[in-house]
Amino acid sequence: MSLKEDTRNTSSHPTNLYTSLPQTCLPIVYHPDYNITFMGLEKLHPFDAGKWGKVIRFLKEERFLTDADIVEAREATEEDLLVVHTKNYLKRLKWSVVVATITEIPPLLFLPNFLVQRKVLRPLRTQTGGTIMAGKLAVDRGWAINVGGGFHHCSSNKGGGFCAYADITLAIKFLFERVEGISKATIIDLDAHQGNGHERDFLEDRRVYIMDVYNSHIYPGDGHAKRAIRRKVELDWGTEDSEYLQKVELHCEGALNELRPDIIVYNAGTDILDGDPLGGLSISPQGIVKRDEIVFRAAKQRGIPILMVTSGGYQKSTARIIADSILNLRQQGLIRGGAGQSEGLPLRATHMESSSGSAGSTSTRE
């Protein structure tokens, strides 16, 4: 099912995902419930199901933020999910065998569904709520990062590849329906895998421009979904930093020059890292940090709000790389750190630099 162009919904359901937040909070969204731990079953998938908490821990250690700076994610309700998902799809998630297939953790099919809901799907619903919240924060503050999310293989009626909820589609649909002045979006998907979920959702929606850079030889190889990609960059096995960064910068600039969106949704998967068991590319940690800088700089130069989600990444080192990338964005003046820094506390691994709001925006920048 595609999400076709429609008029603004003037009777949106009540939601707790768009409530007012203190200006003292950074536009960084997280909740401890993101992390999946249950009898060691999470270890049966190569995904590090605790990486999100590790990112936050590293950022705290570097004095980038404190608990008081973090926006606490809220779980997306069924009503929230129905903005995109079909009722039939949500009913199917009440079967453990379906969830086992989507998450690629076969033993889940032997567990009662109430446990699967509580230990697996609730964390994913909380991350999905976090992405929706971060979308509104990005518009209000100029940028936002959901430390989780990026479930780009899930569409309105089908999950897969550890993606049970279509958080990217949901965040965009919420903005279109609820935020005045947001009528065009660009998805920049730099995970190693094709983002076939949001591509299927926006296949017939010209309000959404999709740029996707991915290894053309790996999952999902969804030819139908590729029709939605307006700027497609297919990579070969083992692509390294120089070629990769050149292509990212060239096509990121080209995409944003071709269509100026009201919001950028940046899917910043770290499965492009050299040695990743699923990504098949050979990008260094420094290359990932530089990649994120390129995207944020392009957004800031144009005054376009940007929402970042962390998506795939299947090595234990990816949490440290994500944290280092966020610290670098602060160093480069592309985002700002927490209240502790304004009081003169130095970052232990970075240099303090001043930053300013993005040009051309009337929103308050954090």
From TrEMBL:
Family statement drawn from the similarity comment of this UniProt entry: Belongs to the histone deacetylase family.
Main location group: nucleus
Subcellular location: Nucleus
Domain of life: Eukaryota
Keywords: Chromatin regulator, Hydrolase, Nucleus, Repressor, Transcription, Transcription regulation
EC number: 3.5.1.98
Protein name: Histone deacetylase 11
UniProt biased composition (Low complexity): 354-366
Domain Histone deacetylase, residue spans: 45-325
InterPro entries the UniProt entry points to: HDAC_classIV, HDACs, His_deacetylse_dom, His_deacetylse_dom_sf, Ureohydrolase_dom_sf
GO biological process: epigenetic regulation of gene expression
MF annotations from Gene Ontology: DNA-binding transcription factor binding; histone deacetylase activity, hydrolytic mechanism
Function: Responsible for the deacetylation of lysine residues on the N-terminal part of the core histones (H2A, H2B, H3 and H4). Histone deacetylation gives a tag for epigenetic repression and plays an important role in transcriptional regulation, cell cycle progression and developmental events. Histone deacetylases act via the formation of large multiprotein complexes.
Pfam families: Hist_deacetyl
Assembly and oligomerization: Interacts with HDAC6.
A Gene Ontology cellular-component term: histone deacetylase complex
Originating species: Oryzias sinensis (Chinese medaka)
Region ranges (Disordered): 340-366
Catalytic activity: N(6)-acetyl-L-lysyl-[histone] + H2O = L-lysyl-[histone] + acetate
Record has Transcription as a keyword: yes
PANTHER family, sorted: HISTONE DEACETYLASE 11, HISTONE DEACETYLASE HDAC1-RELATED
